[in-house]
Amino acid sequence: MDILSEDDLKAAIAGADAPLRIIGGGTRAIGNPVEGTPLSVAGLTGVTLYEPGALTLVVRAGTPLSEIDALLEAEGQRLAFEPMDHRGLLGTAGEPTIGGVVAANISGPRRVQAGACRDFLLGVRFVDGAGRVLKNGGRVMKNVTGYDLVKLMAGSWGTLGVLSEVALKVLPKAEAALVLLIEGLDDRAAVAALSASLGSPFDVTGAAHAARGPDGGPLTMIRLEGFADSVAYRAGKLRESLAGDIRIETDPARAAALWRWLRDVEAFHRRAGDVWRISLKPSDAPEAAARLRAAFDADLIYDWGGGLVWALVPAGSDLRPVLAGLPGHARIERAAQATRAALGAFPSEGPALDRITAALRAKFDPRGILNPGLMAPKPVE
Amino acid sequence: MEMPVPDPAILSRKREIVQRLRAILPADAVIDDETETRVYECDALTAYRCPPLAVVLPTTTAEVAALLKTCHDLAVPVVPRGAGTSLAGGALPTADSVILGVARLNAVLETDYANRFIRVQSGRTNLSVTGAVEADGFFYAPDPSSQLACAIAGNVAMNSGGAHCLKYGVTTNNLLGVTLVTMQGEVVEIGGAHLDAAGLDLLGLVCGSEGQLGVVTEATLRILRSPEGARPVLIGFDSNEAAGECVSDIIRSGILPVAIEFMDRPCIRATENFVHAGYPNVEALLIIEVEGSEAEIAWQLDKIVTIAKAHDPVEIRESGSPEESAKIWAGRKAAFGAMGQINDYMCLDGTIPVSQLPHVLARIRDLSAQYGLDVGNVFHAGDGNMHPLILYDANRPGDLEKCEAMGADILRLCVEVGGCLTGEHGVGVEKRDLMYSQYSADDIDVQMAVKDVFDPAWLLNPAKVFPLDATASRRMARAYAAPDMRI
Description:
The complex is a heterodimer. Chain A has helices spanning 6-14, 65-74, 87-90, 98-103, 111-114, 117-120, 149-153, 187-198, 228-241, 252-263, 285-296, 337-343, 351-364; strands at 20-23, 37-40, 47-51, 56-60, 77-78, 121-128, 133-137, 161-169, 171-172, 176-183, 204-210, 219-226, 246-249, 274-280, 299-303, 308-313, 328-334. Chain A is of the alpha+beta class. By secondary structure, chain B is α+β, with helices and mostly antiparallel strands. Chain B has 3 domains: 1-226 and 442-487, Uridine Diphospho-n-acetylenolpyruvylglucosamine Reductase, domain 3 (2-Layer Sandwich); 230-335, Alpha-Beta Plaits, CATH 3.30.70; 343-435, Alpha-Beta Plaits (2-Layer Sandwich), CATH 3.30.70.2740. A 7-stranded antiparallel beta sheet of chain B has the order 15-12-14-13-17-18-16, with helices on both faces. In chain B, helix 2 (14-24) packs antiparallel against helix 4 (61-74).
């Protein structure tokens, strides 16, 4: 059945008598494998409201991200959380949808400064597992009316409800952007430089390091965005405050390509092995890296000043025991179904939070039909 | 405003309940003397008062866990209280409830500049969080007007905002982790110094849940490096429409001011009489602050002034010095106090789409004439978060009811034009019974189902947020679910 309206979606879920596998653009095959009848919301498209002067966009969940980007671009605006495109990394095809971005809380390098997808999500409409059409939040910037289910829905991967419409805060595009590039730093020096930049008053909007950059050697990248004069001024100040040999890339196309390379983890495209996504305290990143290299000869990329580590490791590796004791969490972003099923794509959060999570899911989806098991931690044996 | 009838079974067992609390807490941490509990009879929504059964002032997470477990076992409702500055009655007690005050939980636990966070106990005041890091050039961004007094616990419970959230976001955007104690007395850690949830975003769910899902005893907060400088410009207009359009044009231009504050004529007049800030005699006034280096500030202000000039401003006053900046902010910061000098007031908190500003202000003026109550408007215009202040006389019979009715009309208007009932103060008791104007019964039911998960017996702050009729069956059920009380 084609889902072309919220009513269609409601009918499909209310009438389902078996588990459903929820699909937006189908480009993010992440999580534990789900057995279920495919339910695509890709037909649920269209812009409900766009008020550039209020920085507000309301769109149906199946709307392709490319359409939204074009719409915003025409008004000199953008989605500031810079959602990653997973197609290259996961080898998927299709058109990413805004509903998928929100359901997976997909953010990019600018997350460290501007916030995550969930921070820009103003409101949601969705159908829960009982087939009820529900809304939470709204379309205004500040809203504390009732519980914040908007945050809960972002990153719930279709396991609490299926999004039909989302309201987002958008921001003006920066007039100019440039990148400070430092070559040859080791992990500790790189994370220290990123921390110093993010702790400066110069409003850094990207802070990343790759042990093997696009040219093969270690590359540290620090991004500044804004009005041209301001960016030039801050670049000068930041270069003064950081020691070492710093090159400034001002060509817009080359700067954009570098951040796309980072955002989409292009370094791991078409390379054998599993990809993990690790969130941790930035200063713990070098220790995590050392352990992962020793255990798996991992290739690593740091984003968010070290707070996000992408690891390419041999297929079937389990990183969690190696990272034990470092606060944070590790998710399998790319691996064979068997590996994801065996290790659990999402980590356990401990008995108390796992129990609360399961109980919440039972309230939103009492029949357990929405992407069942997708986020379930591996049962403790 | 109606509150549930206190449970006589609890009232009659006050002595036993207090004894049980004394058994697990230090002697001075339990208050049951009726003259002393009166201090806790209300928060900043002073129109409603009720002394609690008892007050507990724990100093550790372990004490909070022990006392919540005890209250859970005794089926005694608990009302968490930060600093008692809620404008929505979030900390209003019922006679059968124990107030859990976090004021003694006020330590800084960890400061980490390399990773840009601070971990504090939740009773610490908002301003003192910044105070702990400002000497090193950092600050905590959310800045509610009550920041000198209000506690982080209350900020988290209400997802508080402030004047500077246009650029930096509200509490939920600056909160990295919490230590939460559930009503059953279980201590859970949610989030931490790392970003993003491992699974469901429970941190986002807890923030803004008005103390109904658990008691936050510690919080990990994002701190930011202070900007090099900041400076405001004051712009006066002879119509609300012109001011509203100016706000929209500034936002579209790509400049992101840290604050865009709006005051209307009644408010300007009141503050002038009160603090003599030298504000122009205009219909509407904007205070717009930008940050950066001296050159960046000058450049941004220049661009803002150029935009403003297209809207026929009556007056433009750019700050050239810290003294001038302070003078521009003086009236805005004193606005609530100035209105309070005139009469009692009720402060509303609805948010509207910025484009609806002139329309809503005109409608508020009509309502003011209809009800015969004066209204001043002072608010965060950049994000549409309005604060109409309705003046009334608490000593005149019927005035409070009239004020409440007018407030409800204004809030329904906010919802009608695409906004919401509360932008940063929270629902509390104040807007509880208006929830149906924004949400359907199902929308409310799914929120209550969340509370069912965290607090199945509905003991934490039970008579808040949701319409009383919606929560009645759940609140009643607890009387039968309390083994210790059925002796």
